[in-house]
Amino acid sequence: MAQVRARAAGIVQQRLFREGSEVRAGQALYRIDAAPYAAATASAQATPARAQANLGQASARPNATGRWWKPTPSASRST
Questions:
Q1: What's the rounded Cα separation, in Å, for the pair 32 and 13?
Q2: Is 12 exposed, middle or buried (0-12, 13-18, 19+ CB in 10 A)?
Q3: How far apart are the C-alpha atoms of 11 and 27, rounded to whole Å?
Q4: CA torsion 68→73→74→78, rounded to 10°?
Q5: What are the angstrom distances between the C-alpha of 12 and each of 31, 32, 47?
Q6: How far lies 35's CA from each of 15, 42, 46, in Å?
Q7: How far apart are alpha carbons 69 and 37 in whole angstroms?
Q8: Element of type H or E holding 47
Q9: Where are the domains of the chain?
Q10: Tens digit of pLDDT for each residue in 24-51?
Q11: What value does the mean pLDDT of the chain take?
């Protein structure tokens, strides 16, 4: 008999097998609530838009020295 371990956290919505029945490798056993994952996906997808908005605000006003900030090629490069 094999051990069954959860690979994802969440609230169980439905059991997709009968107790004592055989299951195949890779077969879904439970359906979990997708809402937390949908919220995390939406948040991750909003991150670039938020960063772009912050860039727009930063370039629309002078910095502490009174100079206007302009993005440079070196500022957009990853380190």
A1: 5
A2: exposed
A3: 19
A4: 120
A5: 6, 4, 29
A6: 18, 11, 16
A7: 37
A8: helix 35-59
A9: 12-19+26-54
A10: 988 999 999 999 999 999 999 999 988 8
A11: 81
- Find tokens 């380190």 and name the residue: 79
Terminal CA-CA length for the chain = 50
Tell me which residue has tokens 């956290």. 9
Whole-number Å distance between alpha carbons of 69 and 61? 7
Task: Read off the tokens for 53.
Answer: 């908005």
Partners of 62 in beta bridges: 68
Q: Bigger pLDDT: 28 or 60?
A: 28
DSSP 3-state of 76: coil
